[in-house]
Design goal:
The structure holds 2 protein chains of 2 kinds.
Chain A lengths: L4 H16 L4 H26 L8 H17 L4 H24 L3 H21 L1 H4 L11 E3 L2 E3 L2 H23 L2 H11 L1 H6 L4 H27 L9 H14 L4 H18 L6 H15 L3 H16 L5 H6 L1
Chain B lengths: L1 H32 L6 H18 L4 H24 L7 H23 L15 E3 L2 E3 L1 H23 L1 H11 L1 H6 L4 H27 L6 H15 L4 H22 L4 H15 L14
Antiparallel strand pairs in B: 1-2
Helix pairs in contact in B: 1-5, 1-6, 1-8, 1-9, 1-10, 2-3, 2-4, 2-8, 2-9, 3-8, 5-6, 5-8, 6-8, 9-10, 10-11
The chains are: A mainly alpha, B mainly alpha.
Chain lengths: 324, 292
């Protein structure tokens, strides 16, 4: 129970917020969108934060899931849940195929390769008009329904996305406390050392890459049904960068940090709208300032403050134990 | 048919010269500080936009406007290092990437405030009457781009191999502590590296602006292409970056001309991926080993 204390807190918070602010536009609409990005960020954090593999093309998997659902339900009349499953199969398969050659690369080369993959997928979405509708995208995507209960209002979407987020967070927490999770963290420390300890590093990296892609594909399917419309611009290079920023901003290797990053980056533009012409400028400045003053991300920075506070009061913080 | 291909090759080399200068800037900053500066493309945009507004808006003669534009961009490059990169200590590699992305968004926002969303063009340096060479034609500006890039690349090469300042920067990239021990002011060298990269970016922007037009958001794609070129050549190898830039320009132009212009970027990136799969450290990069 103690291990999952944070998860219960998150669940309580997600359930309490709509009761405290009933019908609040920011909470229900922007909040649902933040929730979708949180699902994406938690998935990407598995790959980036824990396994230490950067991906600048994660929006591609988000897009693949979304387009699979959009095309199969609106063009071919599939059942949305069946389409969601098919979308996950396609996303997972593509991720599996590119994982090995891509994850052999390191550092900036890995960054470039994933970035290139993201750009290629985006161009394909724009150019294959007969399949994807080209730059105009696909509209009139039917709603999801759960036991005959159509998910067609903002409030219901909030509930579905919150529940999915909780599920994904639970999965991420459990995974990181498992044998696989420890293998991934060892790999983050040093790939060679992890290999020498008998970890099949290539297989470990591939499986976490596929899992992160599947999470993104799931978020994509939900996004397509929530918006009832998809177009390539929702899955371009900037979205990939935004996802990486969410993970880093919150604090790498922290599941809750990734959620915090997603919430901040989704709400910030909404709040900055009042600055009109200065919006872009201020957004860039805030991004720089946070990274300069909290290089370990927000959660990491708060942890450091907490620990130095402990030390000052003469109690050993976690950092001291690590050093000993 | 051959004339047509030759025409695409000429266009590709012009485009590639721009990429080469941006990629060279990437390599210089990466060598000096291990930072991938994703704001590099914004230097290109700032150089071009300030030259345009100084010459067309303020009525300055073109050479003066260009000189001032390059100077403005150079100062912004120094400020980027001094106020955004230098203060961030104990930051991860990904963290520095986010800072440079923040800087790039900031500079774009600044350009949007000053110049709006309109597309602008710089006048051609020496007329627009096309030159015919056999079956192919090119604009005098194409020659300016190719020649300008060649001169700048040569100058950078000489700077790093023949001057004390250039060698001092190289020393910092080999081993920062050792460089400091022999009396090199590492902080100042980093500033010089950022200034030099900004200068190269601004020059690329100014040279190509008469052909390609420019707007506040033109820097993003150029920055990405420059990064791709630097990776293609092997990160941290300046002359590799130049070769990577030319190669990327050629690939794009041939793909656009012979296959499809809609897919030109996709084709360039597919080839980039294939190269990386076969040579994980780029074409001219050295394989590195991890120490445990």
């Amino acid at each position: 129970m103690k291990r999952l204390r944070g998860w219960w807190l998150l669940a309580a918070l997600l359930a309490a917020l709509p009761l405290i602010f009933p019908g609040n536009y920011y909470l229900i609409v922007v909040g649902a969108s933040a929730g979708l990005f949180a699902i994406l960020a938690v998935g990407l954090n598995l790959l980036m934060g824990y396994a230490g593999q950067i991906s600048l093309g994660h929006a591609a998997f988000f897009g693949l899931g979304a387009y699979a659902s959009a095309i199969l339900t609106s063009r071919h009349g599939w059942n949305p849940w069946l389409a969601l499953g098919a979308g996950l199969v396609v996303t997972g398969l593509i991720a599996y195929l590119i994982a090995r050659p891509v994850l052999r690369l390191k550092g900036h080369y890995l960054a470039m390769a994933t970035l290139g993959f993201g750009i290629i997928v985006h161009i394909l979405l724009v150019q294959t008009g007969s399949l994807t509708g080209g730059p105009d995208g696909i509209g009139e995507i039917p709603p999801l329904s759960l036991f005959g209960w159509a998910i067609d209002t903002d409030g219901r979407w909030y509930a579905v996305i919150a529940a999915t987020l909780l599920l994904v967070v639970l999965l991420a927490l459990n995974l990181m406390d498992s044998r696989t999770g420890r293998a991934l963290r060892a790999l983050h420390g040093s790939e060679v050392a992890a290999g020498l300890m008998g970890i099949d590093t290539a297989a470990a990296k591939t499986s976490i890459f596929v899992l992160a892609a599947l999470t993104a594909g799931l978020a994509g399917s939900l996004f397509a049904h929530q918006q009832a419309f998809v177009s390539p611009d929702s899955f371009n290079f900037f979205v990939s960068i935004e996802l990486v920023t969410m993970v880093v901003l919150g604090g790498m290797a922290s599941t809750y940090g990734a959620i915090l990053g997603a919430v901040i980056l989704t709400f910030l533009p909404e709040l900055l709208v009042v600055f009109e012409d200065y919006e872009v400028l201020i957004f860039g400045a805030i991004l720089m300032l946070i990274m300069i003053f909290l290089p370990q991300g927000i959660v990491g920075g708060l942890k450091d403050l907490w620990q130095s506070g402990h030390r000052r009061r003469g109690r050993p913080g976690k950092g001291d134990q690590d050093a000993a | 048919m051959w004339d047509q291909i030759l025409q695409f090759v000429l266009t590709g080399i012009t485009l590639g010269s721009t990429y080469a200068l941006v990629a060279l800037g990437f390599a210089i900053i990466y060598n000096a500080s291990d930072v991938v500066n994703l704001a590099q493309g914004e230097f290109v945009m700032l150089g071009a936009m300030s030259a345009i507004s100084l010459s067309a808006g303020q009525g300055l003669p073109l050479p003066v406007a260009i000189l001032l534009a390059v100077l403005i961009t150079l100062i912004l490059g120094l400020m980027l290092q001094r106020f955004a990169i230098a203060p961030a200590r104990g930051i991860t590699v990904v963290g520095t990437i986010i800072i440079t992305i923040g800087a790039s968004i900031f500079l774009r926002g600044l350009a949007l405030l000053i110049w709006g969303k309109d597309i602008h063009a710089l006048p051609h340096f020496s007329g627009e009457s096309p030159i015919r060479l056999g079956g192919v034609t090119l604009l005098p500006q194409n020659l300016w781009v190719m020649g300008g890039a060649a001169v700048l690349v040569l100058a950078v090469h000489l700077f790093f191999n023949r001057t004390l300042l250039g060698k001092a920067i190289l020393a910092c990239s080999c081993n920062r502590t050792a460089a400091q021990l022999v009396g090199i002011n590492v902080g100042r060298m980093l500033l010089v590296a950022y200034g030099l990269s900004a200068l190269l970016g601004a020059m690329a922007g100014v040279l190509v602006a008469p052909i390609t037009y420019t707007s506040y958001d033109a820097g993003i794609m150029l920055g990405l292409k420059g990064f791709a070129a630097a990776i293609l050549g092997g990160m941290g190898n300046p002359m590799g970056a130049v070769a990577g830039g030319l190669l990327l320009g050629l690939l794009e132009s041939l793909a656009a001309g012979l296959i499809s212009s809609g897919y030109k970027d996709a084709i360039a990136f597919v080839i980039l991926l294939l190269v990386l799969f076969l040579r994980p450290s780029g074409l001219f990069g050295r394989a590195s080993a991890e120490r445990v």
